């Protein structure tokens, strides 16, 4: 087991205090958005002696992060593997450089994600079932949008919103006149990004309030945005993001509409499967990784089944304490001892 030091990412939406406190580091006035633990070239982690993690682990197929959002992130989705491969080849043939801001497909890989809350965490995740959305829209007086959905369906309505053929102002006005959580989110997003169609599209998504230990899984085509909170995130080691709005970064509405899944998501919350008294596993269908949570309460042995990364988010236990992380090679064994919470990601 080797101690690993991550890399901080100072994105504008990050929290000033959450990650520094977790990592026992003094806040420096910068937003600490993410703490990367992996071999991704955008922020390669190191071992405690300064050796790159990749020197002992190779290129990991996943990236483990600590994430702290103080402001909403972009409304976005990610492609499946086939779409990523086709998009990568198409943009390569068009001579769009990999570092060009207009580039969407920077590699030929899918990017499934799982976010597990370690504080209360708010997010938008997947389209709400049509009947529930219809009831919500009519209850707040957004009858015009409700009628569009009933007559034309979800996919056509979303496309019309993004293409500007459905006015957004009446729906935003209805939200400003109501105090429901969904309306409050829309009003806040409109204040930040006035006139953007993504503000109204957000009203069609599930507003999720995660408790610590609960998660959301973001498979291909899932439209989502993190809003507020701190969590552990694990994702495929890819940079492929298709953005719809709520960001100064490149937005491609037509590509977004091609990639999106419009299948309703009735309950986006992922609750872990308790494997034994101390171990919980989070389902990640189709992904090359899985996330585990260990609630250590005394000696707890573990043997790595593949290349694994572990991070302690609470408590103190040998050999990890709060804010520390480590790499385990395949077949390597360790015994956690004490009282702490450890998140562990394993390849599969």
TrEMBL record:
Q: Which InterPro entries match?
A: Man6P_Isoase-1, Mannose-6-P_Isomerase, PMI_typeI_cat, RmlC-like_jellyroll, RmlC_Cupin_sf
**Gene3D superfamilies found in the cross-reference section:** Jelly Rolls, Phosphomannose Isomerase, domain 2
The Gene Ontology biological process annotation of the record reads: carbohydrate metabolic process; GDP-mannose biosynthetic process
Q: List the EC numbers from the record.
A: 5.3.1.8
CDD domains in the cross-refs:
cupin_PMI_type_I_N (cd07011)
> What UniProt keywords are attached to this protein's entry?
Isomerase, Metal-binding, Zinc
One MF term from GO for this chain? Answer: mannose-6-phosphate isomerase activity
Q: Which reaction does it catalyse?
A: D-mannose 6-phosphate = D-fructose 6-phosphate
The Phosphomannose isomerase type I catalytic domain extends over 5-129
Per the record, its GO cellular-component terms are: cytosol
Q: Which cofactor does it need?
A: Zn(2+)
Pfam annotation, one family = PMI_typeI_cat
Q: Which EC class is this protein assigned?
A: isomerase
Q: Which family does it belong to?
A: Belongs to the mannose-6-phosphate isomerase type 1 family.
- The name this protein carries in UniProt is mannose-6-phosphate isomerase
Give the organism, scientific name. Answer: freshwater metagenome
**Which classification does the entry list for the species?**
unclassified sequences, metagenomes, ecological metagenomes
């Amino acid at each position: 087991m080797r101690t690993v030091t991550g890399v901080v990412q100072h994105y504008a939406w990050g929290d000033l205090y959450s990650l520094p406190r977790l990592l026992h580091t003094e806040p420096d006035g910068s937003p600490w958005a993410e703490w990367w633990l992996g071999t991704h070239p955008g922020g390669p982690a190191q071992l405690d002696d300064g050796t790159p993690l990749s020197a002992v682990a190779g290129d990991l197929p996943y990236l483990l992060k600590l994430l702290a959002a103080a402001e909403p992130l972009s409304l976005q989705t990610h492609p499946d593997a086939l779409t990523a491969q086709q998009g990568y080849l198409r943009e390569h043939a068009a001579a769009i450089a990999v570092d060009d801001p207009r580039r969407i497909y920077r590699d030929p890989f899918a990017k499934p994600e799982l976010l597990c809350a370690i504080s209360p965490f708010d997010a938008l995740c997947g389209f709400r079932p049509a009947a529930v959305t219809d009831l919500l829209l009519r209850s707040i007086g957004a009858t015009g949008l409700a009628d569009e959905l009933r007559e034309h369906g979800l996919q056509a309505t979303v496309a019309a919103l993004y293409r500007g053929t459905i006015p957004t102002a009446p729906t935003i006005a209805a939200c400003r006149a109501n105090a429901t959580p969904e309306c409050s989110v829309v009003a806040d997003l409109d204040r930040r990004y006035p006139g953007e169609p993504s503000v109204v599209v957000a009203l069609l998504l599930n507003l999720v309030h995660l408790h610590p230990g609960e998660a959301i899984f973001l498979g291909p085509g899932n439209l989502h945005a993190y809003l507020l909170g701190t969590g552990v995130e694990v994702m495929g080691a890819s940079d492929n993001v298709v953005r719809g709005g709520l960001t100064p970064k490149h937005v491609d509405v037509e590509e977004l509409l091609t990639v999106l899944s419009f299948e309703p998501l009735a309950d986006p919350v992922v609750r872990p499967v308790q494997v034994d008294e101390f171990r919980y596993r989070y389902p990640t269908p189709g992904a090359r990784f899985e996330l585990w949570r260990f609630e250590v309460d005394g000696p707890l042995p573990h043997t790595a089944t593949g290349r694994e990364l572990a991070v302690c988010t609470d408590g103190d236990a040998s050999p990890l304490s709060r804010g520390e992380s480590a790499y385990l090679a395949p077949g390597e064994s360790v015994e956690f001892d004490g009282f702490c919470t450890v998140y562990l990601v394993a390849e599969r």
